[in-house]
Every structure is written in structure tokens, then in C-alpha cells.
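mind reviewing both lines:
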Amino acid sequence: MLVMPAIDLREGRCVRLYQGRPEAETVYSTDPVAVARGWVERGARWLHVVDLDGAFAGRPRNLEVIAAIIRAAGVPVQVGGGIRSLESLAGVLAAGASRVVLGTVAITNPELVARAVERYGERVVVGIDSRDGQVAIEGWEATVARGAVEFAREMASLGVTRAVFTDIGRDGTLQGPNIAATREMARGGGLKIIASGGIASLDDLRSLKELAAEGVEGAILGRSLYNGNFTLEEALALAGEGD
């Protein structure tokens, strides 16, 4: 299973939010490029970068920082946050991203997702953010009357192969991931799943790894790493990325 340290950007800083709320912010570093370099030096083979300002604004806002992170990292970087047009998508790829994560636009304009997949293939990932089983959009500030698993199946029908699945109620809480919802998504959504939100311990990571046969191929780690609940080296060893 792939382990991806998260770097969430807000106003050029590396932060984490509690349940996606901008007023519940913890700043971990004012130098996200150094943070990225540090994770790679400790063994990260992928990084997951989120432009939080972009998610709230509806367009990328930290592109220069993202490009600097990608140059410094030297490993593939997956980028999401505010990518709601083909122009924005192309700009993030031009900055060096290996994958882009489409969230809100996948709900509001699925035809754009289809065109993006036709043009960029597996470099396009869908972000499925769920609150009580319903899809959340616009930086998690709104939900729509669409079941998360149903939405995943719709994205699979458009040619999408992979999704980042986040249970918002668990994100940044260190309360453990929603294993049941992640299992349901992996079994029923028709997509490869990268799990995100709430991972607090190596036992949590072990529980997600047990879902690998059902389609969970990776996990994004944020606050648990930054708070030192366990080390990246321990997570990588447990995940067995070379398997």
C-alpha cells in the first residue's frame, strides 16, 4: 500500500485543518518546500499537496509554492484544491504535478471530467469528500444530495480509475478512519481508493492495508505524522510499499 504524506497549503504555509474548517487551523511550518524535502529524505515515494486557498476560492492560489515543492521533492506529487477548469488543470500539470485531483467540478461539471480523462488518462483523480454519506463540495462548505458511492460509480463510468476518499467528519481529528465507509466505497464504487481522514495510529493504517484486496491502494497521512503519533519510516515499513 502506498503511503502519501500530505502538505496542505494556506497562504503559503503548511497547515492542517480540523474537519476542513478554515477557522480551526494549525500551522506546522512556514516553509512547505522544506517540509516536502524532509518527507522525501525520510522515504516518501509520493506526496499529496492540497491548495486550501484554491479550494475555497475556486481556482489555484498557491501554484508557485506547488511548483517549488515539486522541483524540490524529486518524487511524484499529487495536487488538488480549486482545479475547476481544464485551464487550471493544465496549469497544475505544467507546474510538474504527476496527478491532479478534481473535486467540486466533478459534481458540477462531469463533462469536464470526461474531457480531462480523455486528454490526461490516469493523471486525473477524483476527490470524493463525504459527510454522512453525502458528497461535499466547495472546500467542504456545502453538501449535495448525492450518495458518495453512487457518485464514484458515475465517475468510473466516465473513465476515472482512482479516487481520494475522505470522510470529512474524521479529517484532522485523529479519531481513526471510517473503515466501514472506506470498505463500502472500495467495494461498490468501481474505483481504486486512496483513503484519507482520521488516520491516527499504525493500527489504523494496518486496518486500511487489510482492505487492499478490495481496492484500497493507498493512504494519505497528515496530522498523525506532523504530531508524531508514529514516524513515516514506521508507516512505510507497515505499508510495505514494495509489495
